[in-house]
């Protein structure tokens, strides 16, 4: 962030990697906050010139249209696979990150995510979890809470019919190829700062050539919940944080090899 | 001896605002309120009403999904 003129100092403003453009998202959508955090991290790490973002399909991917960095759009859920191709194809010179949502990452793309993380690719993923499918009309997602009303669960999600919410950050922490896994939020200034630290750490793991960095960011989707932004934030603080605990689940500096056959 | 606090300037880009009120809700000193005026697309945007108590924490800017707020400290 730079000074505009010498009579005053900028405390908080638009990062360089974010265009001076109107955000196409809904009023009260917190994806814009996460996009801004990613841009600030890119600015601070000085990688604006050699970062490549892989956008999935969904509202989370709107950041593609307002970020001043190179992006590739993948098919629905295939961002980790496309990211693998870009990273290995460029001989690891670029910093490659994926931005994915509930359906993209936890439903249609869960296979690609698991395969990329099992391989321990040197990628960074930011997972936008708002407990539903926003873009397509507010349907049930793997991350929807039990009892939550969506367009495909008008009486609330029931385990017998719709299963249980998936906790992706904890799942990632259990894989040797993943060296960083955290879950964050952006509902208060303190959480904003923690999210920025987590995303910066995840990017640094890739820059240092260690392994896969995964950050899950929780948010509330006002249209999905059928609530105004302030009410959606209250719902978020009451329910989302109760279901999905915040924190760092894994932070290691090398990929652990538990057992290896010697001289086979 | 009382130390004089440096003034904070909060600039609001009303055309970028989508009226979500996260800024007004998260200001610890209640320096922002959602105004009566609407922008060209119909959203009520915030008004900075209390410069004296503003601590320059930047919460209003950081939590704005549209980055419609910039916070400056006068030097």
Structure, described:
The complex is a heterodimer of chains A (264) and B (75). With 264 residues, chain A is an alpha/beta fold. Chain A has helices spanning 31-45, 79-89, 102-107, 110-119, 159-162, 168-173, 189-207, 222-225, 229-243, and strands at residues 8-12, 51-55, 70-73, 95-101, 124-129, 178-185, 212-218, 247-251. Chain A contains nine helices and eight strands. The N and C termini of chain A lie far apart (55 Å). Chain B contains two helices and four strands. In chain B, the strands form two sheets. Chain B has a two-stranded antiparallel ribbon with strand order 1-4. Chain B is mainly beta and 75 residues long. In chain B, a hairpin with a 5-residue loop joins strand 2 (32-38) and strand 3 (44-48). The A-B interface holds A 4, 6-14, 18, 22-23, 25-33, 36, 186, 188-189, 192, 229-230, 233 and B 8-9, 15-16, 18-22, 25-26, 43, 56-67, 69-75.
Class from helix and strand fractions of chain B: mainly beta
The ordered string of helix (H) and strand (E) elements of chain B is EHEEHE
Number of strands of chain B: 4
* Strand percent estimate of chain B: 25-35%
How is this fold's topology laid out?
The complex is a heterodimer of chains A (264) and B (75).
Chain A: E1 8-12, H1 31-45, E2 51-55, E3 70-73, H2 79-89, E4 95-101, H3 102-107, H4 110-119, E5 124-129, H5 159-162, H6 168-173, E6 178-185, H7 189-207, E7 212-218, H8 222-225, H9 229-243, E8 247-251
Parallel strand pairs in A: 2-3, 2-4, 4-5, 5-7, 6-7
Antiparallel strand pairs in A: 6-8
Helix pairs in contact in A: 1-7, 2-4
Chain B: E1 8-12, H1 22-26, E2 32-38, E3 44-48, H2 59-62, E4 69-74
Antiparallel strand pairs in B: 1-4, 2-3
Provide a compact summary of the structure.
The complex is a heterodimer of chains A (264) and B (75). By secondary structure, chain A is α/β, with parallel strands linked by helices. Chain A contains nine helices and eight strands.
């Amino acid at each position: 962030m730079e000074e505009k003129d010498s009579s005053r100092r900028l405390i908080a403003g638009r990062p360089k990697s974010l265009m001076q453009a109107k955000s196409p998202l809904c009023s009260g959508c917190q994806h814009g906050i996460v996009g801004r955090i990613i841009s600030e991290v890119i600015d601070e790490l000085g990688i604006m010139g050699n970062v490549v973002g892989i956008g999935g399909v969904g509202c989370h991917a709107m950041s593609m249209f307002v970020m001043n960095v190179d992006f590739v759009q993948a098919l629905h859920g295939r961002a980790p696979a496309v990211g693998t191709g870009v990273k290995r194809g460029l001989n690891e010179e670029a910093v490659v990150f994926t931005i994915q949502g509930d359906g993209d990452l936890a439903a249609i793309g869960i296979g690609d995510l698991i395969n990329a993380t099992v391989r321990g690719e040197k990628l960074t993923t930011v997972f936008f979890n708002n407990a539903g499918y926003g873009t397509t009309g507010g349907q049930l997602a793997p991350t929807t809470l039990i009892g939550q009303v969506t367009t495909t669960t008008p009486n609330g999600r029931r385990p017998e019919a719709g299963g249980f919410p998936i906790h992706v950050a904890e799942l990632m922490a259990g894989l040797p190829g993943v060296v960083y896994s955290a879950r964050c939020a952006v509902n208060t200034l303190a959480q904003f700062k923690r999210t920025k630290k987590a995303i910066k750490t995840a990017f640094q793991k890739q820059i240092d050539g260690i392994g896969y960095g995964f950050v899950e960011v929780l948010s509330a989707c006002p249209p999905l919940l059928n609530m105004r932004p302030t009410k959606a934030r209250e719902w978020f603080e009451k329910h989302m944080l109760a279901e999905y605990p915040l924190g760092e689940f894994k932070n290691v500096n090398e990929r652990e090899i538990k057992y290896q056959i010697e001289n086979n | 001896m009382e130390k004089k606090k440096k003034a904070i300037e909060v600039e609001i880009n009303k055309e970028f605002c989508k009226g979500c009120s996260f800024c007004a809700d998260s200001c610890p000193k209640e320096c922002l309120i959602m105004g009566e005026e609407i922008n060209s697309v119909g959203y009520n945007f915030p008004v900075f009403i209390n410069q004296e108590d503003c601590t320059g924490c930047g919460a209003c800017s950081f939590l704005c999904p549209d980055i419609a707020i910039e916070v400056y400290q006068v030097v």
